Each structure stands twice: as structure tokens, then as C-alpha cells.
Request: fold
Amino acid sequence: MSVLIKNGRIITAADDYIADILIEGESISAIGKNLAGKADSIIDASGKLIFPGGIDPHVHLDMPFMGTFSSDSYETGTRAALYGGTTMVIDFVLQTQGKSLQHALNDWRSRSDNNCVGDYSFHMAVTDFNEDTKKEIKHFIEEEGIVSFKTFMAYKGALMIDDRQMIGLMEEVKKCGGLINVHATNGDMIDYLVAKHRSEGKLSPLYHYLSQPEITEAEASERFVDMASYTGCPGYIVHLTCEGALNAVRNATKRNQKMFVETCIQYLLLDASLYEKDFEGAKWVMSPPLREKKDQASLWAGINQGLVQVVATDHCPFKWEQKLMGKNDFSKIPNGHPAIENRMELLYSEGVAKGKITLNKYVEVSSTNAAKIFGMYPRKGTIAPGSDADIVIFDPNEKHVLSAAAHHMNVDYSGYEGWEVTGKVKTVLLRGKLVIDNDKCLAEKGYGQFIKRKKVSQII
Ligand SMILES: [Zn+2]
Reply:
């Protein structure tokens, strides 16, 4: 099966030119002007932009959390991602304290395998680092193709590891050629503030926000960066939200340290005033919480300064009835918000169309850098001969309105209800197959493949 895409404006992290793309099988075989039209099918992309398929390296599908599961399955979540131009996601396997990493991976695979429509991989969250866990790291990197290990500096008693475990894990992961991801907030400070607010009868979603002030994230980010510097382990801070935490990274770069930063689309676009809407604020209860306008300005600047390399989502949807579990107590609201389908269009509309970032930067932070950092480049993350034919054909001018009525995520509200965006994903190919065309999904669950990743280079 071959496909020829004619006359599109091809945008990569480095290039911007008009040419034809020939796809044979699952990969790109040639790019050039006026390629001969011998393909089985031809797509005319005149007037359209062509991006590499988006990569969202931070999602939680069908994830057990606070007594329930995030509402998107691997099928609905990866399908919604494709509608929004994201062809690959990286989800998180969570180790149960007292059990092995392999046990957790088997559990996650029982939900993910043969159920994904789009491509996927996993980060392995290490919540209990000990002598047994240590022995599994090499196997995960070399055999399972899982090279990134997530750590939590919060959620004590469930997910958090202490600094002693962090240092031990970093030394092992560095030795084996992997990378540490971190949820960097000070769990003890937050636990103290949550208990204090509850004891004072302050139970609305606003107090979720007030229990996680900027300093809790800035302190933990700095501590993580220091530990990574000491061990020499490459680090990646997930969902960084604020100026204080970003400044910790700025300081670290003065000593030539390798440290990567991800933010999420919501932290660029939404702010904490949404928590003043009584219980409706529960829609945006996530950790860390939304911040202030000055933090948004820092994050946009950080993207352009190269300090923030990735814009992800932390997609972790819960239906409204699940959010109601915390109706009378903010600490019982399941954390997370839906965005897997909206990220690429929102970032284009608010970033590129409004002049905050260039087209090349857009591709870099929505696809290329994630592929490089997490060991998939150049198979994923670019448009080049030999790369997987993961391609988004995008109309930069078409306007449309985001809403729960129109989206494909399995959740009954939108965090962006009524938001008008400029630019629309029109056609998506994943490994050479036409998967989205004219608002229809043409792929079935099971088409999405688990992508084994390579050791990380530490350099992007
Ligand atoms: Zn997350």
C-alpha cells in the first residue's frame, strides 16, 4: 500500500517547505518536488500544513485512582488523541508498593494491549525502590523498551519515594542508560496544608489550589535538580506549572546540567481564577493546580528560551459523577482533566496563530523533543525518509469551537467549553494508514502498537 501526499507545506522542528511525500508501507520513502504519481492513493494537501504526528508523553488512560478509574480507556483515549492530531502517547504504569515493577507492567498491559487505536508506550513509575526493584531496571531498559522511570515526591504512603530511594534509583537508572521523570511537589508540605484546611472546614475546590502553593513545587523541583546534578542522572520534570519551579531549572543550567522540562497545555492557557466557581472548579482540580497569569508568561517565555522542551496534557479524565465524590471535600475530588484531543489545536491556535511561538517551535514541543528525549527519534517526531509515516494534515485557517458535545473523549464536560480555536486537524496517518479523515476514524482498536524505545542520549 502506498500513499502520495501532494503539495503540502511540510513543517518539522527545523524545516518549512512545500513538497510531496511518498509513503510505502508504514514509513516515508521519499520527499521531493513533483514526485511521480504512482501511488495507490493520492491526497491533495495544497494550502495545508503538514506536521509530524503529535506525541503526548503524559497521559493516564484507564488508570486506577482514588477508588475509581480515569474514564478514557486505551481505546477511547488513543482514538480521541488521533482526532486531535496526536498519534502516539506515553502512559504511566504505577508500581504497587511491596510488589515488583513487572507485576505492575503485566497489570497495565492487561488493559492496554490490543485496545489502543493509536501508538503508545509506558513510563514505569517506581513507588518502592529497594534491592529487588533495582534488579529490574536494566531489564526494563534493555528488554521491555521502557527507558523512563517516573518518581513522585508527593502522595506519601501510596506513590511517594523519599530522597534516599531517589538517589539510589537515579544511580541505577543512570548506569543503565535511562531517564528519571519526576512529579516535583513537596508532599509533606501539601499534606500539612490539606489537613489544616480540612480541620478549618475549608472544603471547596479553591482549597485544593491553596493547599499547593507555588513554593511546594519550586522547593521540590530545586531538590530534584540538585539530586540529579549530584548523581549525574538525566532528569525530566513533568507538568511544571510556575515561575518559581522554572527558575530552579534556570539556576541548574548555570552548572551545565542536563534537565528537561515539560509543561501542559492547561498551564499555558488557564489560570486559578477558575477555582472561584464554587464546585464547578472541580473540573480543573489537578495536581499541581492551575497557577497565575505571571506563571503563564514564564512558561511561554521558557518555551522560547528552550528551558521548556515539551507541551503535554497530563490527560486524566473523570466524569462529572466521579468528580462529585469530592462534593463535600476537595481532597476527595479525583485529580485530572481531559485534554488529549485538544492539545495540538489549542497550542496552534493560542501559540502559533497568536504569535507566541513559531511553527517550528510548535512541532518541536508537540512532537520532536518528546521523541528525542524518550528514545524514539527519528522513527517518531519528524518527517523524513525512513521515519514512520505519522502525519497530520492541518488546515491553519478553519475555525471551530471546542465542546463536550463535539469531542471524542469519554467524559461529559470539556475544560475548554465554548473555546473557539483557529486551525483544525483534517487528516491523520499513522504508520502509513489513513486513520482520521473528514472527522471519521478509520482505524480499529488493536491498530495502535506498543513502541519499544531506545536508551536515551541525554542530548536533544
Ligand atoms: Zn500525570
User: Anything to note?
Assistant: Residues 214-231 form the longest helix (18 residues).
